[in-house]
User: What shape does this take?
Amino acid sequence: MNSRDVIILGGGLAGLVAGIHLINAGANVCLIEKDSYPRHRVCGEYLSNEVKSYLEFLGLDLQSIHIPELARMQFSTQRGHALECELDLGGMGISRYTLDHLLFQRFLKVGGEIIQTTAENCKFQENIFSVHCKNGKTLEANFVLGAYGKRSSLDKILKRSFINKRSAWMGVKAHYDNKDFPDDLVALHNFRGGYCGLSRTDLDTVNVCYLATYESFQKHGNIKAFENKVLSRNPFLEDFFQNSTMVFEKPLSIAQISFENKKMFENHMIMIGDAAGLIHPLSGNGMAMAIRSAKLASEALLEFKLDPNDRERIESNYTHSWKNNFRTRMKTGRILQKVLMQEKLSNISQSFVQHVPGLLPKIIKLTHGKEMHV
Assistant: This one.
């Protein structure tokens, strides 16, 4: 049986980025992904410019696509009281449909191997991993990266602490045609039981992605009724839905989104992206965090030349880097979520921010990172 240097479980942003980075450095990498490309995912689709130079370093030709340049952020309370500020680094309005496909094509171009199946189990014995797949194959590698997203059947097999806790959150996403929505704006609108992000994408559509408590959603039975009776109580969202046409056949949704703390390693599998930790979407920077975590894990592996005998030092290096980069962001996201989910507290905090104009940019900065060095 041929053994790889690294097997990556999951072909989203984190998995593809890590694969490209490692292959560029000479590693033998196999990626396992059950879905085909291109496809849409539930995602806010705002990407901070902190990762732009790094993506170009990996070989992505972002200049060949018309990507809206996002320069402003607008926030409103449930009643529609709004604040606005400039984004320090700015960002890109790029759909996951486009970005994942670009990364997938780049991964293949640099010589990456993709197997379209599902990893059903992953065992670690005698300093080597065995990955058992749904297609009947068993693959071996010195290292495995868990890049399979928010939750997977593997989480149950690995007995991860969060997987058996029922989560209160669900996410919904669709693209809309709305010619009046500004090209340079990221909007975050609060509603009872959740919050909704809007921004224009490279597909000349406006991405609408919201997070809601399942308790608030189930009272209304379906997505359309929930949007009409709950989201539209916010006047900004009411105006948007009244003047927009959905271009998807139906919205995408995902349930059981967990924001519990997650371990960065499970039986020596290195977790990256959402598998390592999920920031509240209201912080608007999950895509950049997934990409950065892939870079950090790749650098930790390469620093010790992918030597399995240095596994302990690799894990220590990645843990230190991950905490330095994300601990403040995750903490800030949790605090913001608690504030925005309480209407009185949200109104009070916004009133305070209105009297201190420089505070909102500082809060946003706490959920973003510095430009990545390559």
In short: Residues 311-340 form the longest helix (30 residues). The longest strand covers residues 82-93. The chain is about 35% helix and 30% strand.
